[in-house]
Structure formats: structure tokens, C-alpha cells
Amino acid sequence: MMDDWWTWLFDYSPSIYWLLGSTAIVFIELFGSTVLPQAAVDEVSLWGKVRAKQQLNVPKRYFWHFYTIGLVWCWLCYSNLTLSQSALIVQLSRRLGECWLVETPSNSTMSLIHYVVGVTYYPMVTLSLLQAAKDTSPAAFMTVGGLLLFIVMSGWQHACHRYLASLRASTPSKRYPLPQQYGFQALACPHYTAEVGVYVSLWLLSGCHPSLALCVVFTTANLASGALKTLHWYQAHYPSCTMRYSILPGVL
């Protein structure tokens, strides 16, 4: 009986996590202000430069915790690496390196809820890919397309992060200039667009496994929520802002 419980938990906990998380984000975005106090909505939905000094703050520089925990989970869970699992390890290693070597420290914060989501997110991705390796095998076109997409999106996101870090470093004592390269001319958060692209590539490399599809939905919903607020912030603070979309060109 205990073995059946652990098997069920392994097989379904990532999908349940993605479904509940996506549902919560959509509910808060659409109905949060009508059923919850605005302070509570802001507490759970704002981070970074758009976040006021709410309670239960966690420094945004603690993002490196997420990638470290993710790498530990990969080390614990993976033995014979698949291409999708290897890609996740590359993604986590790159982001951890960017946290320490590229990104400029700031006073930005996130809520405790965002922190909890961050430390649980990558273990769930790890389990989703582990489940995919057991259930599916990608076709050749999925492998080629997924690998190419992973390389392009990873490079784009890295370029965005280096560019933002250079802007912060150029004006350490005040708000940095309006970003205008690497897609920022039209998008408020092209680095989020690239992040979504990375997880679409993992979905392809996993053989289009349903659990990774739900991961892509959750990732898109989560990042779109922040990107929309970032777009409004840019438009309010920079009269010359030309950004029309938050994260998905022509859509959102």
C-alpha cells in the first residue's frame, strides 16, 4: 500500500502542482481584486521593481536558492540522463552562474509566497522530466526542434540578462534607463518570453509529455502575470516607452 502511494505521488504530484498553480494565478488575476483585499492581491502578485514595501518580503537576490535546489534535485533524481534532463541541468547551471557573475545586486524584493513557489518549482520540473523519461520517447523532429529552440532561447535570455545588468551598473544610484535592445523595444519582458521558450523546448525534448505541457502553461501564466505589471510600470514611468506587449508578441 505504501509503495502504491509513493508511485501515485511520483506520477501525479507534478501535474497537480501545475494545475493548481495555474488555476490560482488566473483566479487572482481575474477575480482577486473583487474577492480579496487589494493589499492581499498585491502581496501575492507583485515582485521586483513593481512591488511596494509589503510585509513578508524576501530579497530578490535569493533567486540563486531556486537554481541550487533544482540542481540538487537533479543530482538526487537523475541517473541515466536524457537530453531533456541534461538541458534542464544546463538551464539551471546557467541561471545560477548569472545570479553570481552577471546580475547586479539590487534592493528588489519578492513575497514569501513567490519564494515558496520558486523553491518548489524546479523539483516539480525535475519530477515531470523523470516521469516523461519513463512514459515517452521523443520523435527525431521533436529532438532536433527542441534542441535548436533551447539553444536560441537560452542565448536570447542570457543576452537580455547581461543587457539589464549593464543598465543597472551604469546607473547604480537611480532608476536605470529604458531598455531598448534584445526585444525590449516591443516587449516589456523578452527574457520572460525566452524563459517560456526554454520550457517549450523541454516539452519537445520530453516527447511532448502532458506533464511538461502543464508546466509550460503554469510558467506562461506565472511570468505573464508579472510581465503585464512590468509593462504598465514602464508605460507609467517612461513617456518615451514604445513597448506594446508584455511577454507574447501580438497576443499579450
Furnish the topology, listing elements before pairings:
Layout lengths: L1 H34 L2 H8 L11 E3 L3 H15 L5 H19 L7 E3 H24 L4 H31 L19 H16 L4 H28 L15
Antiparallel strand pairs: 1-2
Helix pairs in contact: 1-5, 1-8, 3-4, 3-5, 4-6, 4-7, 5-8, 6-7, 7-8
Describe the structure.
The protein is mainly α and 252 residues long. It has eight helices and two strands. The protein has helices at residues 2-35, 38-45, 63-77, 83-101, 112-135, 140-170, 190-205, 210-237; strands at 57-59, 109-111. The chain has a two-stranded antiparallel sheet. Helix 4 (83-101) packs parallel to helix 6 (140-170). The radius of gyration is 18 Å and the shape is globular.
Shape, per Cα inertia axes: globular
- For the secondary structure, the number of strands is 2
Stretches with pLDDT under 50, minimum 5 residues? none
Helical percentage: 55-70%
The end-to-end distance, rounded to whole angstroms, is 47 Å
Our estimate of the beta-strand percent is under 5%
Q: What class would the helix/strand composition place it in? A: mainly alpha
What strand order characterises the main sheet?
1-2
Mean pLDDT over the residues: 88
Radius of gyration over all CA atoms, rounded: 18 Å
Give the ordered list of helices and strands: HHEHHEHHHH
* Main beta-sheet strand count, sense and barrel state: 2 strands, antiparallel
Count of DSSP-assigned helices: 8
